[in-house]
Specification:
The complex is a heterodimer of chains A (624) and B (233). Chain A is mainly α and 624 residues long. Helix content of chain A is 74%, strand content 2%. Chain B is globular, with a radius of gyration of 17 Å. Classes of the chains: A mainly alpha (624), B alpha/beta (233).
């Protein structure tokens, strides 16, 4: 490796560190004050890029100069800040006291809505922005060509850092933001109106995201996919740096920028794995990131994000379950081929969603990367059949083992964490698995995936496969449900409600949670295996973020506090999707608005709503 | 004590409070006149801190009536209550350790309601010289006693008419406790009403005339503090 090459890589790493820092600083400020991880931060970044693309050409037509370019960047940033401000006033303000899971989901609903709007306004194709006047060439440094725009970016990072530092340390607003990051209840008790503070933080965070996006347009085209892409990077930076810490974000961005620059040179394709190893390592040594601090104490008692009032099943409930299963058994006799296909998918999703409900509702482990285990199961089954020559039966046995193994490897890191850090790590892990599936083309087939994964001859018929799926899903759900009422389930709930007290009575909380993580992983992977054979093909979208959000949306729609919620939600969401299929791209908008509406209007979901109605009627009857 | 409606700056009647599902206060009633110092005494876990958090709206609560300076504060958000002139100094002090001493005071600063800015950082640095010496230093580096002083000073920056002081003497050396007592006397001299929660009855008696005793979330005594001291022995 020559010196000039190393210098070029170093500068390249600095430029990407600058860009990363600018975006991540906005995310970390917003999180620090509002305690909400804003998934829509990536969408704001994307909006910044599109605003800049739209604004820049007319501005540069007025005067083709660098100051005009700078003005374009600033206007794009300000506009994005205003969007952030509206998001706070219209949506976030209503969910500050809601459980974390609902907060995350509502911002993801926003991601879907904004993505759809962007496609509607700017079209689905990539838009190339103009190059920056005066910064189009390259400069030779130590024998290698460095684009001048990269040098501009390298300068912008420290500049933005300095400005943010000044705002946070030299203005009353900044001092209040820093105080609220540490203890917002106390800030309120001192007479500070938090609403204004939060609105201001969202403006600042949005403007930083928009500025980061606008800065990218001379390097990369604006596209409707750039929101999710930047989101993972920004999450990793804020988690490693410590959520809420701006200097932490700067430090982490520098490390990751260099790791990527030199990682690509030394071990191409392994950069994501390197980033994961770094993130896992940091979180083991410092569970709150390099410069972060433990969650501040809050006086509020959050609504439990899990099963409340878990009663042993009554005879009436068994009767109802029996009726549902009986109806499912006779269904193929009444339904056409298409409905049978839909029913197979619903059964598969029900098993996967129930496993997630088991993990979140009973274990208190809020996983944001559930699709990883679904995908691991699907890929394990597919690869076993196509590459190892396994039969379907053996492949379906292998799938849950692979899921459990994957969950064991990642779970060791995941279960040590709590709350938002845990959710972020599960998401990052899922992105790593996704990246492996996309990049390891020789084995996984990359974006094309694996085709021709067909069931064994005896299970080829649709009706037969339906009964196979029904048998496996119902058995899986029954076994998971049985665990809820076994000592293991009790112990897990104890650990969920108070890890400290559970520890004090001799429960090994870490091991319990790891076991729950592996069990949920295995059940989900089994569902993934069933899905692979039902489709005949596998592709990486099975393990992408939207699939993880789908599973969470199933829980949300059905009701997170009820056992039956996951099942009802799986059916409701999938049927909604099938119904909305003719709408095409509108699906994102429909799903996004559905998620937002449920969080705002009926956070207890369908089953929770029904349970409430029944209770109210029962109470009315007893009182009359 | 007769409920002198007009003279009471803080008037609480039938206050219930809840931590999640669990009720922790049961019909607490108390009145504090303008400029009066009242001690709230009781054992650990009796509900002293909860009374203060509930009045400030930091936990779920409901009351038959609850007014401060004539305003109904039952449904107001916490920052409104503070802006009406009710200060709160929490037991855990809750200093912003990432901020400097001066920045901590800045967070507490509110425009004076009467127009007269009684408490400024300059004056507070005179009362608490330690704070003045470390104004530019991180509040995280301070001792427990200094943090307690900062917590009180920070609340005074809001120019309150009444202050809820939660166990200011807890865990402090006798010298600092004495300084604390002087600060409370100074506050009284400026006409600030004080509700002081204490386990140290002797310390409470040096600053308060009247005492309320709280037991398992309910008020069981309301009268002159000497009477309570005689009773306990």
């Amino acid at each position: 490796m020559s010196l000039s090459f190393m210098i070029a890589q170093f500068l390249n790493g600095l430029a990407s560190a600058s860009s990363l820092f600018i975006v991540a600083s906005g995310l970390t400020i917003v999180f620090g004050v509002t305690r909400i991880v804003n998934f829509a931060h990536g969408s704001l970044y994307m909006l910044g890029a599109y605003f800049a693309v739209t604004l820049m050409q007319p501005l540069l037509d007025l005067s083709r100069s660098f100051p005009m370019f700078l003005l374009g960047l600033l206007v794009a940033a300000a506009l994005t800040g205003l969007v952030g401000l509206c998001i706070e006033v219209v949506l976030l303000r209503r969910v500050y006291r809601a459980p974390e899971l609902l907060q995350l989901l509502i911002t993801f609903g926003l991601v879907l809505v904004i993505e759809d709007l962007v496609v509607r306004i700017w079209g689905p194709l990539e838009l190339l922005g103009p190059r920056a006047p005066g910064l189009r060439g390259a400069i030779t440094i130590a024998g290698s060509q460095v684009p001048s725009y990269d040098l501009f970016l390298i300068a912008m990072g420290p500049l933005v850092f300095g400005l943010v530092w000044l705002v946070l340390h030299r203005t009353r607003f900044g001092i209040l933001v820093r105080a609220a990051t540490q203890d917002r209840d106390m800030v309120a008790a001192l007479g500070v109106n938090q609403s204004l503070l939060f609105t201001g933080a969202l403006f600042l965070g949005g403007a930083l995201a928009g500025f980061g996006g606008a800065l990218q347009i001379p390097r990369a085209a604006a596209s409707p996919q750039m929101d999710i892409a930047i989101l993972t990077d920004a999450f990793v930076v804020t988690v490693i740096g410590g959520m809420g810490s701006v200097p932490g974000a700067a430090l982490a961005a520098l490390i990751i920028g260099q790791l990527n620059a030199f990682g690509i040179a030394l071990l191409p394709k392994s950069t994501l794995v390197l980033v994961f190893v770094l993130m896992a390592g940091v979180l083991i040594v410092r569970p709150y990131g390099l410069l972060g601090r433990p969650e501040p104490l809050s006086l509020r008692v959050a609504v439990p994000e899990g099963f409340t009032r878990l009663m042993p099943p009554t005879p009436a409930l068994w009767l109802m379950c029996g009726l549902v299963v009986a109806a499912l058994v006779v269904l193929p006799l009444l339904a056409d081929a298409y409905s049978q296909k839909i029913a197979i998918e619903v059964l598969i999703f029900a098993l996967a969603a129930f496993a997630l409900a088991f993990l979140i509702g009973n274990g208190g482990v809020v996983s944001f990367g559930h699709a990883a285990y679904f995908g691991i199961g699907a890929y394990a089954a597919g690869l076993a059949v196509k590459r190892l020559g396994f039969g379907m039966e053996a492949a379906l046995l292998l799938a849950p083992l692979a899921g459990a193994a994957g969950a064991a490897v990642f779970g060791v890191f995941v279960v040590r964490l709590q709350g938002i850090y845990l959710a972020m790590l599960t998401l990052a892990v899922a992105q790593i698995v996704y990246a492996v599936a996309v990049q390891w083309i020789e084995v996984t087939g990359g974006d094309n995936g694996i085709v021709g994964v067909w069931p064994a001859r005896w299970a080829e018929g649709r009706v037969t496969y339906y009964y196979l799926t029904l048998g496996v899903s119902v058995t899986g759900i029954f076994v998971l449900h049985r665990m809820l009422h076994a000592p293991f389930g009790y112990a897990l709930r104890a650990a969920r409600d108070s890890a400290v007290r559970a520890d004090a009575i001799g429960l090994d909380v870490g091991r319990l949670r790891l076991l729950a993580f592996m069990i949920a992983g295995a059940a989900t992977a089994l569902a993934g295996g069933l899905y692979a054979f039902s489709k005949g093909s596998i592709d990486p979208t099975l393990l992408a973020i939207p699939q993880s959000v789908d599973f969470l949306a199933m829980l949300l729609i059905g009701g997170i506090q009820q056992i039956g919620g996951a099942l009802a939600g799986a059916a409701a969401l999938h049927l909604l999707r099938v119904w909305a299929l003719p709408l095409g791209d509108m699906w994102r908008m429909v799903l996004g608005l559905t998620i937002i509406a449920i969080v705002l209007v009926s956070p207890q979901g369908i089953v929770g709503g029904v349970a409430q109605l029944v209770q109210r009627q029962r109470r009315a009857r007893t009182s009359s | 004590m007769t409920p002198g409606q007009t003279s009471a700056i803080l008037d609480v009647r039938g206050l219930d409070a809840f931590y999640g599902q669990a009720q922790s206060l049961f019909g607490v009633s108390l009145q504090i006149a303008r400029g009066e110092a009242v001690a709230l005494v009781g054992r650990n876990g009796a509900g002293k801190s909860t009374v203060m958090k509930a009045i400030m709206g930091l936990i779920d609560r409901r009351a038959q009536a609850m007014t401060f300076a004539g305003h109904d504060i039952r449904t107001r958000p916490t920052h409104h209550i503070a802006r009406l002139g009710l200060g709160y100094v929490p037991e855990e002090r809750r200093i912003f350790t990432d901020l400097t001493v001066a920045e901590n005071l800045e967070v507490g600063r509110l425009p004076a309601r009467g127009g007269r800015q009684i408490w400024t950082s300059t004056r507070l640095y005179e009362i608490f010289p330690n704070l003045g010496e470390m104004a530019r230093r991180s509040a995280g580096h301070m001792s427990g006693g200094e943090q307690q002083m900062l917590s009180i000073a920070r609340t005074l920056m809001g120019n309150p008419d009444a202050v809820l002081l939660d166990e200011p003497s807890e865990g402090l050396s006798p010298l600092i406790v004495e300084q604390m007592g002087q600060a409370i006397v100074e506050m009284k001299r400026e006409g600030i009403a004080v509700l002081l929660s204490e386990q140290n009855l002797a310390f409470a008696a040096t600053v308060a005339e009247r005492a309320l005793r709280i037991e398992t979330g309910a008020i069981t005594f309301d009268g002159p503090i000497e009477q309570l001291m005689d009773r306990i022995g």
